[in-house]
Amino acid sequence: MESDSKQSQETLREPQPSLATIGPEKAFVAICRLAVALPLLLLVVLVVDAVVDGWPRLSWGFLTGYPSRNPEIAGILPALAGSAAVIVLTAVMAIPVGVGAAIYLEEYTKPGRLTSLIELNISNLAGVPSIIYGLLGLELFVRAMQMGRSLLAGAATLALLVLPAVIMTSREALRTVPYSLREACYALGADRWQTIWRVVLPMSLPGILTGIILSVARAIGETAPLIMIGALTYVAFLPDSLMSPFTALPIQIFNWVSRPQKGFHTNAAAGIVVLLVLMLLLNATAIWLRVRLQRRVNW
User: Fold this and answer.
1) Tell me: the pLDDT tens digits for 147-163?
2) Among candidates 218, 213, 211, 210, which has minimal Cα distance to 292?
3) DSSP symbol at 56
4) Helix ranges (DSSP H) in the chain
5) Contact, 136 vs 144, CB < 8 A?
6) What pTM value is reported for the model?
7) In 3D, which of 286, 290, 251 has the Cα closest to residue 271?
8) What domains lie within the chain, and their CATH numbers?
């Protein structure tokens, strides 16, 4: 009885929320919900508008057709092939360098001024506008290295664009691995590389893959860097080599939007829907891989 009375007295002494605090709290929650709902509503409006405008042109012939001056028969096959080739080359260039740089900065370097300077520059590069990377690619790859306005130059430019994001996300994933696991490996006689290869990388793989796929998904929708290096706006052929001229889906959409005929605007809306579907598929793949690999690691 005495313990019950003491507990009741303690609960009575606890501060109860007053009307003055409940009002601002409800207002803050309402503002937060509004901040979440408005961007989602705007996204839904934009997607629905693009689907409604481009639905008449969404067909297998549109996906497998070539560009034409007649909007009713124009297709996006060269743009799709160019985007796929550019993204594959970008991933081949950016992933090994980005993950390797993350491993070196996180596992091998010691804290110091040089390391802090490198980390600061990587963070700053992640926020640089994409058109700056286009100017860099134009001067470095197109002119200095004489790659021309080729598929390889476009992929190298986009690789520079996504490289800081790959490094940062990979480092964050490596930091999620407890240091006690590294110490346990050292205690069993493993060296640093064996510890990284057999323990650290498998444990951090879900986060690394998620960051890589999201970075590649960003590169798919980039237009400014490809325009700066001189990617073509009208291509009636498929790229057949690394040095072949190319176009990409965002550039094809930009070309159609800039034309006065209404039929090309319908084609642009259909191209936007295809681009959104590709980006959603990549994001869904990232989520699926993260969940699947996380379950395997936990098991």
Assistant:
1) 888 889 989 999 999 99
2) 210
3) G
4) 2-13, 19-54, 60-64, 77-103, 113-126, 130-137, 151-175, 179-187, 192-195, 201-220, 224-228, 249-257, 262-298
5) no
6) 0.81
7) 251
8) 77-298 (1.10.3720.10)
